[in-house]
Amino acid sequence: MRVMAQMAMVMNLDKCIGCHTCSVTCKQAWTNRPGTEYVWFNNVETRPGLGYPRRYEDQDEWEGGWVLNRRGNLTLRAGGRLKKLANIFVNPKMPSIQDYYEPWTYDYETLLNAPAQQHFPVARPFSLISGKQMNVSWSANWDDDLGGSKETAHQDVMLKGISDKVKFEFEQTFMFYLPRICEHCLNPSCAASCPSGAIYKRSEDGIVLVDQDKCRGWRMCISGCPYKKVYFNHKTGKAEKCTFCFPRIEVGIPTVCSETCVGRLRYIGLMLYDADRVLEAASTPDDEDLYEAQRSVFLDPHDPAVVREAERAGIPGDWITAAQRSPVYKLINDYRVALPLHPEYRTMPMVWYIPPLSPVVDIIKDTGHDGEDRDNLFAAIDTLRIPVEYLANLFTAGDPKPVTGVLRKLAAMRSYMRDINLGRDPDESIPEGVGMDPEAMYEMYRLLALAKYAERYVIPTAHSEDAHRLEELATDCAVGDYSDDMGAFGEGSGVLPTVAQENFAMLKARQTADTLVGGGSKSGRVNLLNWDGKGMPEGMFPGAGSADVSPTDEAAQIRDPQPGADLGDPR
Amino acid sequence: MNMLLWVVFPYICLTIFVVGHYWRYKYDKFGWTTRSSQLYEDRLLRWGSPMFHFGILFVVLGHVMGLLVPKSWTDAVGISQEAYHFMAISVGLLAGFLTLAGIAILIYRRRTTGPVFSATTPMDKVMYALLVVVILLGLANTLGWHAAGIGNTGPVPEHYNYREGVSIWFRQFLTFHPDADLMAQAPLGFQLHLLSACVLFALWPFTRLVHVFSAPVGYVTRPYVVYRSRDERPGAGVGSRAPQRGWER
Ligand code: SF4
Ligand code: SF4
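^ inputs. structure came back:
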């Protein structure tokens, strides 16, 4: 047994309202830079829907993740090491920007400077890739709330086998939201695909990161990840991915997406697992057994033998305590209501989901029945095959049994708690009917409905004897402002300023300038970290001088609205 | 003058090449990348890039053969001059034209695809121009070597055998006692090819060509999943990005 700790997340999909707050705050924190316009470390998909990038789940096309070869050994679907090297000059499976979407901005200048005229002036969209005027025709959540799904949703990869039964008629449809981040897999195929060895899994907490100094831009990780959660920064020529907000996790606070989640539906905690058994579990012959196989890799942190082994492996005591209190462990192993996303990719993903009961409840309610009645719910779970099969395609490689099991537990919790809330005698046969004892069901309800911050996020701080020497929270995903111009080695080369330096320089520039503004840079990136709301920060709107647009006539029209804001280079 | 052109200048370029790489690696690991533009466009790239890269790999191999292996060795193994020529010419031309066609596609793509063009730095342009010049001169030499004509306008008439001139100079150059006269007597085409190549090598560390030196051969043997401890980077504390760069490391 080789015990390792893994930072993991569970999302309760019933509570997601699809507000995209998580995506937006994540983007503000991490990918608000030129080169990462199209990058969403966190994105929220409406399901049924195509996902982001479009149809990323179709592994026959994209060849991400692992498969078993004829001898039953685990291999990368896109081919082994030698095939990867032979394809190194052009990656045959890399999605193009069209498969994501062409990011754009608007020509706000026209709105601001248009003379009085009879018709309203219009802000036209301009591509952030080519700088030319463009027609917006797709985005990261184009089919939000089933918008346009009549046209596109039948292309949803997860409808395979059931598509003829799903009608996108208004009365019969079902829908829910699926927020996605990097899965920080136990068996990451992104790392396995990286020729440079730049992607690594941290041995302390299992967070998967790209070393920006070692990445050489071979792009194999981008096609290697079946979840398409590694992105190519087209300005720096390096891969970037969700970092699980490790600078925050290290000091014991949750990721930005969790912290800001409106539905408070995310749980973060530690899982202990047996690293020696990961390969074996990932090689389970039958796709449908992968869910149980992965669960069997997790270790019970209350088991004294596990604790002893964990101590021997150098896992500190407070980490073991945190693993024992982990909400993620409870949801995955105690209550067994959380399921992995696409276990059939065999990467052993570590962001799990509680499948939503709401498609079922909604249909019952729409037909005028009592949506909290146990019998109604159970009957509906059994007869409403389509949502269940769809969920099974997402979470259990198509096996409906575990999904039905989870939905029955959620349904039972609903009706059990109704009795309690209405002051009636709780019906103990309800939890027993789904194989839970009443106390556990109540505890599960508490965790899902009431749990406070400290219960939802059980994050032990990182141990390091020189933690007091901390100067700042920063990142391996270079969020620094780089150089302002494209240097001799291209954009983003040279020394990275730290975030603290950058802010200091900006504050100084603002305090000593004649104008009210600050918090901008010539490269067109707006930094609102210390903007006090006065004046308009430089770079709020793209200027003609920004190096990433070609000087076409159209682009030249978008001129810098701040002719007087000559603050000089803050550095 | 000969001394300057065929001894001093090449050594200056070599020094820039070596020191430049060391410095770039220390100072700019973050900028050390292929700077791929596949995300913008991959229909043309799909053809151009493998053609160019595989072509140039063979060209490099050919240079290693032609420059490093002395004629006496191949004679000793019993390869006749004719057989050698035939092989060198056929493989050389094939690889050369593959490279040329590849770079032609790549440059066409770079010029005509808007996003790719605007991601092109001035340094890229200089580098491309030089690369084309070097490749063209090299091809002309290969052609002229046998087909006589172009490239044979130098002091030595037809059938200049570089293996008795340039190659010897090159090996001497590597062992630090080059004989400038050997190069001075080479045909103009060879001289120009060498001079332009020297300039290219001097620019090399400051261009995206550095990615050649990160060819990921280690991938073949390393374990698939890399584990690394948080504190492995020197000076990295909890939550810190370890701002130490370059000379501080
Ligand atoms: S989900 Fe994350 S860890 Fe897993 S393969 Fe993709 S990028 Fe790697
Ligand atoms: S912030 Fe929370 S509720 Fe809103 S979309 Fe994200 S996960 Fe869903």
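The first strand of chain A starts at residue 3 and ends at 12. Residues A 182-185, 188-190, 208, 225, 227, 229-230, 241, 347 surround iron/sulfur cluster (ligand 1) (CB under 6 Å).
thumbs up if we can close this ticket
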